[in-house]
User: Fold ComEA family DNA-binding protein from Antrihabitans stalactiti.
Amino acid sequence: MRSIEERDRVRSRLGAVTGGREPEVVADLDDAERTPEWLDLGPEPRGRSSWLPERLRGARFDPGRPGAVTLALVGVVVVVIVGVVFLLERPQQNAVPALPAVSASVSASPVETSTPPAPAMIVVSVVGLVHTNGLVRLPEGSRIADAITAAGGAQEGADLLSLNMAQRLMDGDQVLVGVASTDGGPPVLGSGTVSSGTAAAPGPASRGKVNLNSATEEELDALPGVGPVTAAAIVAWRSVNGRFTDVEQLGEVEGIGPARLAKLRELVTI
Assistant:
């Protein structure tokens, strides 16, 4: 073949040049023809160079001095633009006005509690045929019925018809509960009221209190619970002992016990 002949011819020439020595063959000529030495790419690239195009694997970027200056200027411009955009897009902080200070001091003044005033009181005298003779304290605006109730109520035989039970009382008034008639006639001792600062205002049939020292047997007999016998005993006691100096001395008269004395105590005088 032609290629073999050319190879033999080259060997003969080389032998003549080298003085008959066999030249060193580095590789098969067929391989040399197929792969020239100047196309030897060396070892297979590894790492990042493996994915680069073959024409760029050995290339190096060198912009030179003018290119470096240009790149620096471009970088400065980019930084300035980014800074301006950041400043413009930054939210503005509006100053909030300070709130007025609130005083934390608590008023130490005591809280006034509205309590209804106590009702005014009046003092009224209740005498006569009531269970408890004397002074009673009543709220202002009370009536005669309230005064008699406060005195324990009226006793049996009391003259209540002569009293206006709804009459209002004033401070210092007196209520006199008289003796009713036993035969349906006018009361023996009429009831009435005595206003403070005025004269007595008994009922129309009122005869006033009976004087133990000057009353006759008939007048004494007209008293409630006193019959002819007791009236005569009172006159007899007076004849023996003289004038009565105290109404309580009626208890010494025969036939007058504590119950009868209690009824007569406010109906007689000395």
About this structure: The two ends are 193 Å apart (CA to CA). The beta strands are 121-128, 134-139, 158-159, 174-179, 192-194, 201-202, 210-211, 268-269. The helical segments are 2-17, 29-34, 64-89, 144-150, 217-221, 228-241, 258-264.
